Write a sequence for this structure.
């Protein structure tokens, strides 16, 4: 699950002027796109190395330990799952050629493709599937997504070490594997399409260990010696991939810890092929430039932001004050902070998530209603005389360079108009994370959530179900507890009929928008732009940089033997300066 406290894309804004000067370019200039060599020929071409980059870094490459927000890009090309998501976010077969839903939705039977190979040449079998699932969910595995699979029969006993095998996963032949659930679970297929349970080679063992060379059945395989922590990762084509003719690329190289402004200049020179991280000014320029517009697109809206109010701490233990906050915020003002990426929004489920209901209740800006809610709370406020309201200042924690450092200035002004006085406390990022998830610490805080899997439950359950409350590192940062909502969400998870599910989630949205543990403020969407010679590339509904079907149409593109040299050259050249900046400011 992903908490999105602020926009990391603002991280290096202070350095753009210096880097622009070093580059010899004016900050407002944009080079022309580099054309495709055969723009009129739609036939995919084989070969070349796709070059990607990020201001961030990865910690470990392993589907059983998705420890940061960047590693799924790498995992997604190294490891194939039984099922995956198509471009629209629908679950489709992958290593499994088909599946059946049996026993009133409590049993899923998968038939594997014959001849699918791991990177070490071994065939993928049902035994490998079971071994990989038990490795990812067993005692000691640092799998942050393990709770997604708790409906599997025997999950608790296996994870606690009371049983040596996971009873809910059974092998019924070399190519048939069954998953049995203790109760119906409408989220099971969507979470199975995530990365944690994807089959890994036998060299990974039966229990989790990070002392192995990543090995799966994805379209690309790991390059021995092709990784340097904090520098780059290189992968090459898996010739035994189960989808004929794919991938087209010889390989992919990611370069890490690159300053945002540096990324843009390298992209314009053709040293990076696809750009995903931006300064605000660069997004605006690229979107407006008619030369670049055909090669860029916004991601679908799959993350929300808002102000999380701790329902256990005054004054936000009073529902009328929470309602006042939700009505007092003019969400259009938030949009102006980052207009290319932010859209005003008053709902817990973003529009791109299957099951989003545009007719369900939402929160709206209504200053008169906000003042009325303050009166009902017992703290009336008179804007003319600026008297009344809550009598004490309210601490509001933000971390430097995050989006909330900017939206906080707006929130202070909005809430002052209804008699709530916020005091901004700028803290370091670890302190911010500790405070927001710790019981009894932060009265109100900026928070966000990015979808893990495309389903409404992925937003309602971690953010508002009472079982998501913890003393430390609580996902339910509002510490909101409502038995009626809990019951609705539990019933919705067991409901397999989409129409009945829609009714339940609409009622859940009504409750959350009315009782306002959050004041929902916006959705955030990222922008991707690629050079014209990157063919077949489109933003995906779930995955970032899904390039399995992409190809390069560039004169003089790198061949496979250049892959390691390219990665090392990137790491030892342009990265030397930018990595130092990034390490100090992540």
């Amino acid at each position: 699950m992903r908490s999105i406290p602020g926009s990391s894309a603002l991280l290096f804004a202070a350095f753009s002027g210096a880097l622009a000067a070093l580059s010899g370019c004016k900050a407002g200039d944009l080079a022309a796109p580099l054309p495709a060599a055969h723009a009129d020929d739609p036939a995919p071409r084989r070969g070349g190395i796709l070059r990607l980059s990020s201001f961030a870094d990865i910690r470990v490459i392993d589907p059983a330990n998705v420890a940061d927000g960047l590693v799924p890009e790498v995992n997604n090309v190294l490891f194939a799952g039984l099922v995956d998501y198509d471009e629209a976010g629908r679950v489709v077969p992958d290593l499994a050629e088909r599946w059946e839903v049996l026993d009133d939705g409590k049993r899923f039977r998968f038939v594997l493709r014959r001849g699918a190979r791991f990177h070490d040449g071994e065939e993928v079998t049902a035994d490998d599937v079971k071994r990989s699932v038990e490795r990812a969910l067993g005692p000691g595995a640092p799998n942050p997504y393990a709770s997604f699979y708790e409906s599997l029969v025997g999950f608790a006993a296996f994870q606690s070490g009371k049983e040596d095998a996971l009873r809910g996963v059974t092998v019924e032949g070399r190519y048939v594997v069954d998953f049995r659930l203790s109760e119906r679970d409408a989220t099971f297929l969507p979470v199975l399409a995530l990365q944690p349970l994807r089959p890994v080679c036998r060299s990974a063992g039966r229990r989790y260990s990070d002392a192995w060379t990543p090995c799966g059945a994805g379209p690309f395989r790991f390059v021995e010696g092709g990784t340097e922590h904090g520098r780059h990762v290189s992968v090459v084509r898996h010739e035994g991939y189960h989808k004929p003719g794919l991938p087209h690329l010889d390989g992919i190289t990611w370069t890490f810890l690159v300053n945002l402004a540096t990324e843009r200049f390298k992209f314009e020179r053709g040293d990076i092929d696809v750009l995903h991280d931006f300064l605000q000014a660069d997004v605006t320029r690229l979107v407006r430039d008619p030369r670049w517009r055909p090669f860029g697109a916004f991601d679908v809206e799959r993350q929300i932001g808002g102000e999380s109010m701790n329902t256990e701490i005054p004054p936000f233990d009073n529902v009328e004050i929470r309602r006042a906050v939700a009505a007092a915020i003019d969400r259009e003002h938030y949009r102006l902070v980052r207009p290319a990426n932010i859209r005003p929004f008053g709902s817990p489920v973003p529009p791109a998530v299957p099951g989003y209901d545009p007719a369900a209740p939402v929160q709206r800006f209504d200053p008169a209603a906000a003042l009325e809610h303050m009166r009902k709370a017992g703290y009336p406020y008179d804007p003319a005389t600026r008297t009344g309201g809550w009598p004490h200042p309210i601490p509001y924690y933000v971390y430097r360079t995050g989006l909330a450092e900017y939206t906080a200035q707006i929130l202070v002004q909005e809430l002052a108009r209804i008699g709530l006085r916020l005091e901004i406390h700028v803290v370091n990022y670890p302190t911010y994370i500790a405070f927001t998830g710790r019981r009894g610490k932060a009265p109100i805080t900026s928070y966000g959530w990015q979808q893990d899997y495309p389903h409404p439950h992925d937003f309602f359950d971690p953010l508002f179900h009472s079982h998501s409350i913890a003393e430390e590192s609580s996902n339910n940062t509002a510490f909101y507890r409502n038995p009626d909502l809990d019951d609705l969400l539990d019933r919705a998870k067991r409901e397999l009929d989409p129409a009945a599910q829609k009714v339940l989630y609409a009622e859940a949205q009504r409750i959350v928008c009315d009782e306002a543990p959050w004041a929902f403020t916006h959705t955030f969407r990222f922008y991707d732009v690629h050079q014209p010679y990157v063919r077949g590339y489109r933003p995906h509904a779930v995955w970032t940089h899904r390039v399995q079907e992409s190809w390069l149409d560039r004169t003089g593109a790198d061949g496979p033997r250049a892959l390691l040299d390219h990665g090392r050259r990137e790491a030892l050249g342009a990265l030397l300066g930018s990595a130092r900046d990034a390490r100090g400011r992540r």
